[in-house]
Amino acid sequence: MTYDALLLVSFGGPEGPDDVLPFLRNVTRGRGVPDDRLTEVAEHYYHFGGVSPINAQCRALIAALRGELSVHNLHLPVYWGNRNWPPMLVEALQRMRADGIKRSLAFVTSAYGSYSSCRQYLDDIAAARAAVGVDAPIIDKIRHYFDHPGFITPFVEGVKAALPHMPSNTKLVFTSHSIPLSMNEVSGPAGARYTEQHAEVARIVAETAAPGVDYDLVWQSRSGPPESKWLEPDVNDHLALLAQGGTEGVIVVPIGFTSDHLEVIWDLDNEAAKTAEHLGMAFTRVATPGTHPAFVSMVRELIAERTQGAPAQHLGKIQTFDNTPDGCCPARRPPIPSR
Ligand SMILES: CC1=C(CCC(=O)O)c2cc3nc(cc4[nH]c(cc5[nH]c(cc1n2)c(C)c5CCC(=O)O)c(CCC(=O)O)c4C)C(CCC(=O)O)=C3C
Ligand SMILES: [Fe+2]
């Protein structure tokens, strides 16, 4: 297959205080997220002047990708469209159509399966194509890359660099975004793909970077009404449990995320770090891939998989698809049970 463009698809985030509430409404439209939760999350954004770092991180990734592609003599224009805040997917597809793009690969800033981390991106791409209408470019999403060396390596390096500075009784704490249990249950053809893929990443990073050091996989940033069941334990509760058991330090590894956006700089660097401080534990948070050269090269390698049949690189042992087949994760989001 040949492609004439690469489209970066991301979440989007507010770029000033006036953007915060409209952005939150875009994200949670029809989702049953209570107002209390929105007010609380708005405060997290206001703490940073209403600016999420995610758009700047996308711009940095695009700049790095353009460099990477041109160094390798790949003349593929790079476009950018977000799901929830400008530049929106629709505008990106309109620009692509105006530029004569017929068929593009899409790299999504989420490495895993599940409705929220994969299918929702596909749904939003499909909706944007429908909105653009006739001659909208065809978009093929690049596969889940959770166990690609380019995603794993930055976390491995981060853990290795942190370990010598930590107390002897230190544990690794892998974290990702919590999702409703109902969403995890229907994720992937056999269910629980989201948690399985994360467990595999935690295992690979731990065994490579810190053999013999205990580790756990926990969840953060849960949303929805308090009564509904989401993946647990929460990172803060887990830190309390570790402290009770005599753990003196934690290396928190945010494997759920590709860049240091708000879930990382607020929910971990602020909330979880404070929790650790109250508990008297040393705390280090490892960087996300961001624009790490291995991560940037990974995108080029994933393109080569699709265009030149380059062998798929997988460090993990679980079966994954090269691409998301139609049957994978429900095309309609499983409802968050409401109160
Ligand atoms: C799995 C997952 C990822 C990782 C995969 C991926 O990266 O896509 C992710 C990423 C992100 N989530 C983000 C922001 C938000 N997520 C929310 C709400 C929700 N997230 C969910 C899941 C995920 N979210 C779910 C099931 C909800 C409940 C509502 C719904 O069913 O949709 C809300 C509403 C308020 C709240 O309740 O927190 C906000 C503001 C940002 C931007 C950060 C920034 O601005 O820097 C990013 C990268
Ligand atoms: Fe989210």
Automatic annotation (TrEMBL):
In which residues is Fe(2+) bound?
177, 263
Q: Where does Fe-coproporphyrin III bind?
A: 52, 121
What EC identifiers does the entry list?
A: 4.99.1.9
Q: Which UniProt keywords apply?
A: Cytoplasm, Heme biosynthesis, Iron, Lyase, Metal-binding, Porphyrin biosynthesis
Give the GO cellular component terms, alphabetically. cytoplasm
Q: What is an example of a Pfam family matching this protein?
A: Ferrochelatase
One example GO MF annotation: ferrochelatase activity
User: Which chemical reaction does it catalyze?
Assistant: Fe-coproporphyrin III + 2 H(+) = coproporphyrin III + Fe(2+)
One of the GO biological process terms? heme biosynthetic process
Superkingdom, according to UniProt? Bacteria
Name the pathway: Porphyrin-containing compound metabolism; protoheme biosynthesis
Q: Where does the record place it?
A: Cytoplasm
Q: Give the family from UniProt.
A: Belongs to the ferrochelatase family.
Could you tell me which HAMAP family the record lists for this protein?
A: Ferrochelatase (MF_00323)
Name-wise, this protein is Coproporphyrin III ferrochelatase
- Name the species this protein comes from: Phytomonospora endophytica
